[in-house]
Amino acid sequence: MHGFYALTNKEMEKEDLIYKEKKTPFTRVNLSSQDLYSLAEKVGTPYYLIDERVMAENYYRLLNAYRGYIGSVSVAYSVKANFNPYVLGTYAKLGTKFDVTSPEELYFLLKSGGAPENVIYTSVTEGKEEYAEVLSKGVRRVVVSSQNGLNNLIEAASALNVVPTVGIRVNPEVQVKAEVKSSFKISKFGVPFNGGAPESAYKLTKQILGSDKVTFGGVHFHLGSQVETPAAYIMALEKVKNFIMRIKKELGAGLLFLDIGGGTPVNYGIKVPTPEEMASQIVDKLNDIAMINGSPYNLIIESGRYLVAESTILVSKIVNVKYYNSKKIIYLDTGYHQLLDIALLQQIYPLEVVPSDESEAAEKPLVAGRLCDSMDVFQIGPESKLEGADIGKLMVIKNVGAYSIVFNMPFHSQVKPAVVFRDSKGNYYLARKRQDLEELYDEEGGSLYAKKEAIA
């Protein structure tokens, strides 16, 4: 049985067939040229389009990748990747758990149909007032990352007369090959398994077991984003196994859950392991830990990037073309203010001109954004289709569903683009309207400037 939604063997075979037949990872969101241009006329460019079908497919694929584990499996969506209400509502309907990091994310989730009992709350700052707020809204599973954080949680829980289940975030201190790393010798995230004064998972476990205000639930770790090999998970799980052996022997404690965080990579144009390949390398280790634990724990796989990246495209318009000597330069009406990872991570997104012109000689033009910044250029991967690029045509930028909409910036006084949502039946909805310039002006203090009311 797999957590909330278990698929039958026949359904799983069907899911496997879908992915065996899938020839390319760059066409998950399929729209006709007519649809793309029609939407551009209705909501303007640039605009994002989120496809619910792809979101659901990735959820089930990640869930079923771990069906070799002997206990229950849950997938937790990391709200920080994209907190649009349509996204949260879709995963709430699927029965997904949610990795939530702030009271504000929790507000969005609950307003969008999410249930507090499906929340795994993992704060960075771990304040007493913060814990009191989320506990008062029904959250009962909290991951702590420090001695002070645990003390604050106990105080908040005691004041509200509730008993939350507590997980401990550990830093495995293993070498990770990943785009963004979270496991270091000294890290802002987590505590060491042993040692430390007083921050160690062992000492925090002992304190939790000695309190009647909280219940010990398990262990959480997160290695990073775009993890390129399962080797780091294997090393981290070996440390988890040794830790479980110790607390079982010395404290009589066991796991209710083990959260191995996120990191399942997305194919942006460079081959990466599939969820099935990642899971197949670590599932035996997960089962070993369950045997040592004495009973199967709930295995939690977190994901933000993998679940939503491939579900979303950004549709931009080509607004200018020029040649610098013999080099063709294409200018778009978007830029890194709407895809920040272009600048932060030099992320390579698949690009496609619509309509393309395959009869045109292949060339590698420079694709530039509309910002007055030399970093605002798009890296071109081998899968991009840029033939026939000309003024007025559309440029589809793929796999942009994670960490793009949430990082929108008003650089150059640019408004937030519209977000369109296509449900599993093919219906289109406006998920976020295009901001107008007057709204941006007021948001940035325009109305306050007009009033000029002193506050001191």
Can you tell me about this structure?
It contains 14 helices and 19 strands. By secondary structure, the chain is of the alpha/beta class. Helix 6 (128-136) crosses helix 7 (147-160). The chain starts with 8 loop residues before the first helix and ends in a 5-residue tail after the last helix.
Give descriptors for this structure:
alpha/beta; 2 domains; eight-stranded parallel β-barrel; 19 strands
Strand fraction equals: 15-25%
Total number of distinct structural domains: 2
Low-confidence stretches are 1-27
What class do helices, strands and sheet pairing give? alpha/beta
The main β sheet shows up as: 9 strands, mixed
Q: What is the count of DSSP helices, taking H or I runs of 4+ residues?
A: 14
CATH class of the largest domain: Alpha Beta
* Strand segment tally: 19
Q: Give the integer mean of the pLDDT values.
A: 89
Separation of the first and last Cα atoms: 61 Å
CATH architecture of the largest domain: Alpha-Beta Barrel
Kindly state the percentage of residues in helix.
25-40%
CATH-assigned homologous superfamily of the largest domain: Alanine racemase
| Overall outline | globular
Radius of gyration: 24 Å
CATH topology of the largest domain: TIM Barrel
In short:
The protein is α/β, with parallel strands linked by helices. The protein is built from 14 helices and 19 strands. The strands form three sheets. Strands 1, 12, 13, 14, 15, 16, 17, 18 and 19 form a nine-stranded mixed β-sheet that branches.
